[in-house]
Amino acid sequence: MQGSEIVIPDWLWLVFLFASGGCVGSFLNVVVYRIPRDKSLVFPPSSCPACGKHIRFYDNIPIVSWLLLLGRCRYCRARISPRYFVIELLTALVFVGIFLLYFRSGLRGGIPSFMAGGWFLYLTTIILLSTLVACSAIDLELWIIPLSVCWFASIAGIVASAIAPLVIHPATIRHYFLLPTTAALVFVNQTTVASLTTGALIGLGMSLILLATGLIKRSYDIAGLKESNQNSEQQQADLDDTQNAAEEFNDRVEMVREVVFLLPIIAFAIGAHWLVGLLPKDLYQSWAQISQMPVISGLLGSLAGYFVGCGFVWGARILFTLIFGREAMGLGDVHLMGAAGTIIGPVFVIITFFVAPFFGLIWAGFQMLFKKTRQIPYGPFLSLGILTVILLQDRIVSYFKIVFGR
Questions:
Q1: How far is 54 from 93, CA to CA, in rounded Å?
Q2: What's the predicted TM-score (pTM) here?
Q3: pLDDT 10s digits, 102-127
Q4: 173, 170, 50, 135: which is closest to 382 by C-alpha?
Q5: What is the rounded CA–CA span in Å between residue 201 and residue 163?
Q6: Residue 152 predicted with pLDDT over 80
Q7: Is the dihedral of CA 84, 87, 90, 95 positive or negative?
Q8: How far apart are CA 115 and CA 334, in angstroms?
Q9: Is the dihedral of CA 159, 163, 164, 167 positive or negative?
Q10: Nearest to 167 by CA among 103, 120, 235
């Protein structure tokens, strides 16, 4: 009716989001199983691993079908892993939980109503959290985090941060730190953030060119071993072979190769900042104005979050590997934090870096007491750290505003 607003009842929102989350969780199960095994996400259709029978649509309803089938295949009665049910339910709860946090709890300030642009922030957060669910499940099962999944979330975060000012007022984004901007590092000048980030991006391009041309060497280069095994029946064996091959490398030497890869990024970032400082006043002000345009600010702020997220974990990986002589953390953890940084921003990803070890220490203690192992997959604990920071973001923002007066 003209002049009236359509009000959607909360219960309808929650049912819709729960069902949508379950469907996304079903897709994440496909990602978790197929991506590490180099299988297509779309072909062939889902089938029972035991008997090979295609799963009918009525046996593939998220959450419900697993319960109705009592966790077993309809045809051969083979056991279906509870992981499928857990991921679908967890993703559905995430969809509902973030909606309640952003739009009904009053715990997050500054977020517009769902229809007035809040949907954009909600969708961006859901992409990140869905990625964390998939990466954590893969890491728990296979002790790896596929870089392709992290890159997808990184691209989504960079694009979302760039176009967010077209959906949500830029001043609201900056004031409440809803998405990254060049103002996200509250203790660093915006122009400095823009200069360092631009230089780092150029340096990354240079490092990738050097890597592609063979002028610098890739660390833990086991691609030849993977390519030598083409039979689909040997894919799980390939994963084991890859892990065995990694044990033959000198970990300290491999870290030196990674440092060489990072040197152009660091050098170009410092160089760009230095050159900008030498610009005449008029050119410097022009660069400052360009870098603070809402779309450019969002783009560079998200990239800053990516570099900071990757940098902290990569630095820890290199440092502890050089100290202990054994690979510490994986490159998947590096790119997972980079992906988080594109969405939560550099300050929050730094906080995550220091929060995550507390979850890891709790689990490590449990493992040492009951399973006699000191190795843990770190991806799930990074994910818990990221989720914790998202939940407490308003309190963190309030603290920084008091400390830095912003």
A1: 28
A2: 0.89
A3: 999 887 888 999 999 999 999 999 99
A4: 135
A5: 19
A6: yes
A7: negative
A8: 35
A9: negative
A10: 120
